[in-house]
Design a protein that fits this description.
Length: 672
Amino acid sequence: MISVIIPTLNEENYLPLLLKSLKQQTYKNFEVIVADAGSSDDTVQIAKNWGCKVIEGGMPAVGRNNGARVAKGDILIFLDADVVLPKEFLEETLKEFKKRKLDIASSYMRVLSGKSIDSLMYNIVNIYLGVSQFLKPKAVGHFIMVKKKIHRKIGGFDETIKVAEDFDYIQRASKVGKFRYLTSCRIPVSVRRLDKEGRIAMATKYVLIGIYFDLFGGVKSDIFRYRFGHYAEEKRKESLKEKIKEFSLKMKMIYRIKSLRAREILDSRGNPTVEVELMVNNKIFRASCPAGASKGKYEAKELRDGGKRYLGKGVRRAVENINKIIAPAIRRKYVINQRSIDSFLVRLDGKKDKSHLGANALIAVSEAVCRAGADVCNKTLYSHIADIYNDRLLTPSDAKFKIPLACFNIINGGAHAGNDLAIQEFMIIPQDSTFSFNLRMASEIYHELKKLLERKFGKFATNLGDEGGFAPPLKRTSDALNIIMKAIKKADYLGKVRIGLDAAATQFYRNKKYWIDGKKFSQDELINYYKSLIKKFPILFIEDPFAEQDFEGFRKAKQLFPREVFILGDDLLVTNVERIKKAHTIDCCSGAIIKPNQIGTVSEAIEAAKLVRSYGWKVLVSHRSGDTTDSFIADLAVGVGADFIKAGAPARGERVEKYNRLLRIEEELKQK
Ligand SMILES: [Mg+2]
């Protein structure tokens, strides 16, 4: 067993990140001891909440020794509170420690900073430490791994030393045991001291400490003014100027939620929906919630007021839940910790279907938190989402981004239109490798289709459905597909565009039969019907070919459709990991639609996408038929590496805002 010992003093900003990274370790057999030196902030509470053993600390040497005294493990790991460990860190370092038969070890540092000067400085330090391990070994207290019997043999850290007690410790320990630097993992370290004290000042100070130590040993006087956390004794000695500087630095570090406010706005269908404004670091982050017309029965529940107002569709209850329940509960929480805020929201709601506070309340808050988190981390929204997806918060992201293929809904039927088409969405999926050209193809085909429809049925045939696609008076699926193919040909993109269908079959499932094109079909007949369409048209996927409870229909389709045609579950899976797992066990899908408001929080949507991807299935991130100009899903799709995105037609503000956001992202990625 390992005992991880962390000395702390007012570390509420950093400790949660370290504890989270410890929780995510692939190696699990360890305890965490926090030796606290009398924090006046939430450090102790945070440590307790994460299940750590909290004991009395002092200066780092005292805290570490106290921790070692109560440690159960036979291997001790001393960590500074401002490090964040990669997932495999404990597993890898322990493996190497044992393999090389070491008694004490440290690891080289990887700096958490985008500045090349910082990387250069730390690389020089690493080289110096690497060379000195064979002559006069030294290690910095960020990470020290030691056998408990060695720690005891040398009597622990020298508590009389104020600076370089870690150097002294390593030198004494290396005389009774074997010390080496581990090469399997580097420890990520923050640059807060460099930021606080200035790079040149810090570099000079460390060089002087090194020289002093080599000449005289550990520093027992105050000649190098060392600050541990926000040490109370030192704080009293600060000048007013330093206090103001410290205060303004702290202000910048306040990445907590200051306030949260919600209001009712209208969506693209003219129905009320929830908008929130979250204030962090004196900036406002806004997000709003969309609403589906064909909702899955198993979706998280949105709250509607009922009654006369807005024909029952008001969302005042959801707004009130945010203002009166959620806002006071999440105030002062750290926005970068998306997963913990989301799980807090889920717990606060307390109901499996989120019907207590309302999924429409939760998702708007969750998305606004995500936006604020990205800003605080100084990242784009999609790369922040990728970091959450990859569990790489506050470590340099190595995510490679691509723009998903967009599926443009150009003919609307089903619940989205007033015509007789049973299939809800007819989508074109241009296949070029650049998004900007795909968008151009979609727009040109859309306009060619408009002309064809006008010519055939007159002007009223180009009325738009909810998602911006046309809602012509067509009756049969093949009529719609034929006229789309004609438009593709007219625009001269034949062979460059595939077709996607969202059957949303629950909507035409009545009395155990599927009603389509004026006929009723059994499960098997419907499969044959789809197969005939697949034969005739370049169909890439069919979403919800069967009703939301008809797992068997999906399973048969998976067996009988050609492998290259994907079967996507939307109403069937509702972005819910339990239903996705079930579908995987039955083997009835080859992809899933991800809609954040179907499940209620960003983290859950990300988890669902991750699960879908782990099965080798396709991920399609989707808007809703009643939407707002919030473009969150564009960043979500890029952040989770989705294969597809659908945001309706290449027309209407709330639809094109998502596509325009993708254009901007594509431009940004090209410049990188
Ligand atoms: Mg659907």
